[in-house]
Specification:
The complex is a heterodimer of chains A (333) and B (340). By secondary structure, chain A is of the alpha/beta class. Helices cover 33% and strands 23% of the residues of chain A. In chain B, 31% of the residues lie in helices and 23% in strands. Chain B is globular and about 70 Å long. Chains A and B meet through helix 7, helix 8 and helix 10 of A and helix 7, helix 8, helix 9 and helix 10 of B. The complex binds adenosine-5'-diphosphate (2 copies), iron/sulfur cluster (2 copies) and magnesium ion (2 copies). One adenosine-5'-diphosphate binds next to strand 1, strand 2 and helix 1 of chain A. Chain B: This is Peptide/nickel transport system ATP-binding protein/oligopeptide transport system ATP-binding protein.
Chain lengths: 333, 340
């Protein structure tokens, strides 16, 4: 349903051109959950925002295609995009307050979103339309309450008029999921929706998203820096490093038999709850600064313990190592 | 000057309890602003962030402290190192009651008990160089000679894995992981014996977290430190801790050896918490207990057992009316729940 080809996003800064997204390829099938994993600054958010054409200034998409149900989103007009954003693709963010308005009741914001997307059609026209307005509002209210219930906000009628600050972080996240669901999207883009939450609340939200995926068949791109969360929640995993995709494939392959030295290193460095405690493996070095990264060669070169001289120079493609499993590393060339 | 620890008022040479916390409480009074007072008739609220906690920390151990955000972990840590004034209870350090220590005595205590903060971005003054940041604790601990101080700073930076040539750089010139190293160096500058390590890696990139955890462990060995290690990442706590205390809404609900807590959890809250840990290893995944609702407010904690509003093993009336005490149910394994 979604195919991204060679997507490039750059930021022109006073320190030079930053390649925030540097040639990403992705495919997502209907009804699947894709995990986009990488540490901060690796280009996950910019990839998601590109799909909605919402990359913030001074960033811009300079190359690539984003095919959604066969049509290139990068060729759509602004008004077509607006329609798609509300109807087909919805996004939820790590901080619910980027979506919620602090001065309106939560329920009203869900109702407003139903109105904007014209979910409950006005029944009458002209002067009668004015009379129909009350009816329409009532139906929207009922639908909003239904959505609140569906995302697990208990006593929805009572909470309808609560303000965002009266909700806990987990409840706010549920409210923006309700807003995202108000248009019954085919694709849900979730940018670190559980990063700020406690594990018990994270489990609740993941549970909710999984239900939405199973019941409505909504496809999800789930961005996280937590490999364990991705391992549990996603069907496919794509690992990003410094604006590039370094490995992608079915979850069992990427987690069970990682190929790229970065993926391998990350998996080794996570503390595990097993009887035997060993010193943690730590990936050496620091997270690269994109503005000062060498334009040539493998971006992981400085930190890679398997690097060879050629890695500094090569232009590597994503190499298919088995059915649906791809790696960008000289070892698999 | 080394004080021998006391147990029940008697000299306790054998167990050598290093730090004793007795019935510690820390309440915050929240005054509403004038407008809210007049318009909404808001009254002042008492936040019972730490509500009657007793625990011992042994010399050389790492005691892990876990629990959901807002349960009072940071408040407990900061109260123990006397950054917050305790509301009630006692803090006994090497047999000496420092609960109300002032002046010189407090200064002495601050040298021995340090803290590493969660957020490496906000805990360092952006207008001070690393040299200035590290000089403050060095001067406080009596290193007055500039040359000696410079040498100490070089040693400290080197020890935490930073280049001493960056001594005159400002915090923003460092990455998150490097800033946390500066925070660690600052805590070490006082040559402390005890450090509260408050969520040292939660704001740091995943590929750097293991470096910081390893550094903290090496330092502990080398300098014979004792840690109170706060984290909400349970895998990290499992990895570093000798014993673990689980907090819920201002109280300790379970405490024991790390292996006992993780492989034989007794309290329903601990069970739920552990079941929610995501794991990369399929075979290690536990059957998930999804807890209903959210943590109640520490302003009005539920009567009886504080977990009773969310507990899936509740025994009825008893749980709602009688507050369970923290009891030793197996050797060294404490739990506060009516099931035991
Ligand atoms: N406003 C901006 N100005 C300059 N560069 C930016 C800006 N926003 C993002 N970037 C660059 O884009 C890169 C990718 O950012 P982002 O997609 O937000 O990363 P992630 O979501 O993986 O943490 C960053 O490393 C940064 O270099
Ligand atoms: N300075 C303060 N003033 C008022 N309330 C506070 C203050 N610091 C913390 N609290 C409250 O005390 C409770 C415990 O907070 P904290 O110790 O930070 O929890 P944790 O570290 O476990 O997340 C929370 O309800 C918090 O809002
Ligand atoms: S290409 Fe070379 S440097 Fe890059 S990950 Fe592979 S071995 Fe390491
Ligand atoms: S005392 Fe009762 S409510 Fe509390 S944890 Fe035990 S069983 Fe649950
Ligand atoms: Mg992001
Ligand atoms: Mg805290």
């Amino acid at each position: 349903m979604l195919e991204i080809r060679n997507l490039k996003v750059v930021f022109e800064t006073d320190r030079g051109v930053v390649k925030a997204v540097n040639g990403i390829d992705l495919t997502l099938e209907r009804g699947k959950i894709l995990g986009l994993v990488g540490e901060s600054g690796s280009g996950k958010s910019m990839t998601l925002l590109s799909i909605l054409r919402l990359v913030p200034y001074p960033g811009k998409i300079v190359e690539g295609e984003i095919l959604f149900e066969g049509e290139d989103l990068l060729k759509k007009s602004a008004s077509q995009m607006r329609e798609i954003r509300g109807k087909d693709i919805a996004m939820i963010f790590q901080d619910p307050m980027t979506t919620l308005n602090p001065v309106f009741p939560v329920g009203e914001q869900i109702r407003e979103s139903l109105r904007v997307h014209n979910i409950i059609k006005p029944e009458k026209e002209g002067i009668l339309g004015f009379l129909g307005e009350r009816d329409r509002r009532k139906k929207e209210y009922e639908k909003a309450v239904e959505l609140m219930e569906k995302v697990g906000i208990s006593y929805p009628e009572k909470r309808y008029f609560s303000y965002p600050h009266q909700f806990s972080g987990g409840m706010q996240q549920r409210a923006i999921i309700a807003i995202a669901l108000s248009c019954n999207p085919k694709l849900l883009l979730a940018d670190e929706p559980t990063t700020a939450l406690d594990v018990t609340i994270q489990a609740q939200i993941l549970d909710l998203l999984r239900q939405i995926n199973e019941v409505n068949g909504t496809s999800i791109i789930f961005v996280t820096h937590d490999l364990a969360v991705a391992a549990e929640f996603c069907d496919e995993i794509a690992v990003m490093y410094a604006g590039q995709m370094v490995e992608k494939g079915p979850v069992d392959k990427v987690i069970g038999e990682p190929k790229h030295p970065y993926t391998k290193g990350l998996l080794k460095s996570i503390p595990k709850i097993t009887r035997k405690k060993e010193k943690l493996y730590a990936i050496p070095g620091n997270v690269p600064d994109l503005a000062s990264l060498s334009p040539k060669g493998c971006p992981f070169y400085e930190r890679c313990e398997e690097a060879v001289e050629e890695c500094k120079e090569v232009e590597l493609p994503l190499i298919e190592v088995s059915d649906g499993e791809f790696v960008r590393c000289i070892k698999y060339l | 000057m080394h004080k021998v620890p006391l147990k029940d008022g008697v000299l306790d040479m054998e167990n050598g309890v290093f730090i004793q916390i007795k019935n510690l409480k820390k309440y915050f009074i929240e005054e509403p602003d004038l407008l809210m007072k007049l318009v909404a008739k808001k009254k002042k609220r008492v936040v019972k962030a730490v509500d009657d906690i007793s625990l011992d920390i042994n010399k050389g151990e790492t005691l892990g402290l876990v629990g959901e955000s807002g349960c009072g972990k940071t408040t407990l840590g900061r109260t123990i190192v006397r950054l917050y004034e305790p509301t009630e209870g006692k803090i006994i350090f090497e047999g000496e009651d420092i609960t109300e220590a002032r002046g010189e005595k407090l200064k002495e205590y601050r040298k021995k008990a340090q803290i590493i903060f969660q957020n490496p971005y906000s805990s360092l003054n952006p207008r001070k160089t690393v040299r200035q940041i590290l000089s403050v604790p060095l001067i406080a601990s009596g290193v007055k000679d500039p040359h000696e101080r410079e040498e100490r700073i070089m040693y400290l930076l080197n020890r935490v894995g930073l280049n001493y040539r960056q001594m005159d750089s400002y915090p923003h010139e460092f990455s998150g992981g490097q800033r946390q190293r500066i925070g660690i160096a600052r805590a070490l500058a006082m040559s402390p014996e005890f450090i509260v390590v408050d969520e040292p890696v939660s704001a740091i990139d995943v590929s750097i977290q293991a470096q910081i955890i390893n550094l903290l462990e090496e330092l502990k060995e080398e300098l014979n430190l004792t840690y109170l290690f706060i984290a909400h990442d349970l895998s990290v706590v499992y990895h570093v801790s000798d014993r673990v205390a689980v907090m819920y809404l201002g109280k300790i609900v379970e405490m024991g050896k790390t292996e006992d807590i993780f492989f034989n959890p007794l309290h329903p809250y601990t069970k739920a918490l552990l079941s929610a840990i995501p794991s990369i290893d399929k075979s290690k995944r536990r059957e998930r207990i999804i807890l209903e609702g959210t943590v109640p407010s520490p302003v009005n904690p539920p009567k009886g057992c504080r977990f009773s509003t969310r507990c899936f093993m509740k025994k009825g009336k008893m749980c709602e009316e009688v507050e369970p005490e923290l009891k030793e149910v197996e050797k060294g394994h404490f739990v506060a729940c009516h099931l035991y």
